[in-house]
Structure formats: C-alpha cells, structure tokens
Amino acid sequence: MAVNVAVVGATGAVGEEFLRILESRKFPIKELRLLASKRSVGKKIKFCGVNYVVQELTKSSFRGIKIALFSAGSSISKEFVPYAIESGAVCVDNSSAFRMDDDVPLVVPEVNAQEIAKHKGVIANPNCSTIQMVVALKPIHDAARIKRIVVSTYQAVSGAGLKAVDELQKETASVLAGKTDFKRNLFPHQIAFNVLPQIPQSNAFLPNGYTSEEMKMVNETQKIMGDKNIRITATTARVPVVRGHSESVNIETERKITASEVKKLLSKAPGVKLVDDPANQVYPLANMAAGRDEVFVGRIREDESIDNGINMWIVSDNIRKGAALNAIQIAEKLL
Question: Which residue, of 46, 68, 144, 259, is most buried by count of CB atoms within 10 Å of its CB?
Fold first, then answer.
C-alpha cells in the first residue's frame, strides 16, 4: 500500500541519502513532500525521474502525511515532531531529541524491531556509531552475554554534515599547497592529516570528562540491547575520512566464546558482512563500506589479557546504515 511520505531536512546529507534509498528500495510512496528551511525553498530535487520542489517546513506541513522522516537536528525535531504526530503521521527521527525518552522506541531493526510496535507517534533512530556496533554485537550478546564493552571510534567528517566535508577538502588542499592561513569554521583544530579526540566539534565535553557522543554510545547501547547491566566505555575521535565510521571494539562475555564461534555467528547475522582474512590483508575499510548497506566486521581475535574477551574491527557507512537506511528500514517495518 502506497503512503504519503515527508522528508524533513531534504537538502542535507542524510536527507539526500533518504531519497536515494527510498528510490532504490522502491518504497511505496503515493505523495512525496520535501521539507526544509526557508533558504532551501524552491530548490528542485529529482526523485524517480520527477523534479520535486522543496517546501518550507511549517506547522501545517504534515497534513495527510503517513510517515515523516526527520533529519534536521534536535531543535527542529523537538519543535515539529509534535505537529506531525498531531496531523496523524508516524515520525522516524534521526536526531538525538527523543532517543532516551522512556516512552520512545530506539530501534535498530536487526536488533530490536519488536520495539517499533510500542511507538506513540515517534520512533528514534540511534547515533550512527551505536547502530553499527549493536548490529555486530547483538548475535554475540544472545550467545554468550556481553558484560563489558570498550570501544574507540574513528569517525568520518560527513558525520558532522556536508559543510564539514567541504572544510576537510579545502583544508587538505590548503595544507598540500603549503599554506598556513586556512580559516576553519567548524572544527576546533586542523582536521586535514590529523585526528581530533572530540565529537561533536563544539560544546562536546561533559562534567565527567566524556563527550556527549561517547555517552550516547553508552546509554543508547544499553537501551537498544535491553540490558542496563552491560558496562560500556567509549572514546570517539574524528578522522580525515569523508565517509565511513570505523570502530575498535573489545568485549568481555559471561561465557567463553572463541573467535571461530564469533565468526560463525556473524557470518549468518542479518545486516553483517564478515570480512576477515588478515593473512591476506583482507579486513573492513572505510572506503569499502562507503555507499554500502552492510556493517562490515573483521580482525576478530581473542583478547589474551582476559579469560572471556574478544577484539574486533567494525566499519559501516555512517550516512547510510548509520542514519538514512536504518530509518527507512524502520519505516518499512511500520508498513
């Protein structure tokens, strides 16, 4: 059954990816409404061979809409999701606005699709780094019960939006040209040929010394996995990669599980692509994941410093599975 769909933030990186995925997966759309801020009004975007005109997001934008896909930031979601719900739409929100609300499902379909049915008008899409990690860890948790997770992320600049990609490209060109006067607008330090242990790029640090991104991974993982007893610590960093987040993940399980058992589990896990032949230099890479739907996992090995430990390397396209695809998978489940 075809339904009326609205895309909020249609001109952003995730909004553009929404449209590519809706088209490629042949999502049943009766009417498509592209919504954005005033400055984008009138812009034309082609979808399924038809040019659609971007409209201004207003309180009345959701009349007749069945599913609203939001990716325009927390403040926009907090303001406009209630109007969408009032108009009868179910919202899938990609911001952090509602993720930790007790009555809002936080969903990764491969992990906890059953939570979708509990929605009260809005379903939250998790943080991109959290999504790819839990897709890989859920089969292991079911088999051997994860007690503790230590994760370090290496996150692409596209996670901070199209302007961040532009800044990386321009700063890289400036550095290669030997210039020292590049004026950056987003990142607090040089991102070209550098690694920044701070996400987001402003107002990142909390009183406990962690960044908000790191605490998202802690809190969201416990909520999605349905287990507040999992102990989690995270360090998140921004790297000069355009697309594709990489993660070094160490887990400790209650029951001993071998590396070969983990590989067998992940080879059959939904949404996972096992890429693990290090002897031949085959392992997940950011440019391998770019534009792909899967969560790639490799470098699986036992942690010899503890009894029940496993190390692994997890990579996924942060704009695709980390945002747009996950939201559309939720929408497909709604239908």
Answer: 68
Question: Sign of torsion, CA 309 243 325 161?
Answer: positive
Secondary element (H or E) of residue 167: helix 162-176
How many Cβ atoms sit within 10 Å of the Cβ of residue 313? Answer: 22
Which tokens go with 102? 């007790």
**Is the previous residue joined to 200 through a cis bond, with omega within 30 degrees of 0?**
yes
Name the residue range of residue 59's domain. 3-126+323-334
pTM of the model as a whole: 0.96
Q: Give the tens place of pLDDT for each residue, 201-239.
A: 988 899 999 999 999 999 999 999 999 999 999 999 999
Strand partners, 8: 35, 70
The amino acid at residue 256 is: K
CB atoms within 10 A of CB 299: 16
Q: 309 is written with which tokens?
A: 């430990």
Q: How far apart are CA 149 and CA 106, in angstroms?
A: 19
Q: Which residues have a catalytic role annotated?
A: 128, 245
The CATH number assigned to the domain holding 29 equals: 3.40.50.720
Kind plus residue range of the DSSP H or E element containing 316: strand 309-316
What's the CA gap between 233 and 218, in Å, rounded? Answer: 7
What tokens appear for 157 in the block? 């600049």
CA atoms 230, 234, 239, 242: torsion sign = positive
pLDDT tens for 173-202 read 999 999 999 999 999 999 999 999 999 998
Same domain assignment for residues 258 and 327: no
The total of other beta-carbon atoms located within 10 Å of residue 213's CB is: 24
Distances (CA, A) of 57 to 40, 43, 89, 92, 205: 10, 13, 15, 16, 32
Tell me, yes or no, whether 118 and 136 share the same domain: no
State how far the Cα of 147 lies from the Cα of 254, in Å rounded to an integer: 6
Q: Which CATH number goes with the domain that contains 171?
A: 3.30.360.10
CB neighbour burial string for 59-69, b if at least 16 within 10 angstroms, e if fewer? eebbeebbbbb
